[in-house]
Amino acid sequence: MKDIYKPVMQAIVALFLILMVKIVSLLILKDIGPVYALMDIILSIGVVAVLLRFMREFNRKLAVSSPEHPEKQSLVTGIIVLLAILIIYGTFLPYAYLMPYLLYAYGFYHIIFFLLALIPIYNIWKVIDRNTEKISDILTFSSQEKKNICSCGWENPNSNKFCGKCGLLMEQS
Asked: Which residues have a Cβ under 8 Å from the Cβ of 66 and sit 6 or more positions away?
């Protein structure tokens, strides 16, 4: 489980650094419109690259740590792909007017991204719908059972009716 935190921390550090560059570019380059716009596009693509790298690494760690829950990987993939689509949508939205007039006038840019966003949303819905009985395990990223500890302090398997050390009746919860 500890291996899962490494890709999370790597993504947080990378996104923090990108945010720092974005703030600096906003403060210094905002008056140079085309240069700032290009920097904004480059940084947004960087964010998408970091998210996709995180998704790959995190899913690889999940496959090892939670092979009994492959749906966790599907959820992570769906959420990251949706975020990437929304980032790209927001990044290029100021330039949507560059599309041919009829396509722009009828909101084609928005419709395309709406349809793209429906794909990961549908996949997330499928995973949740198929796994409603174990949704708490999926969302907590754990499959640990509650420990069954006797009043004498002995840890027993959940299937035991009596303590393996002192023989007392175990309380069922």
From this structure: 72, 141, 143
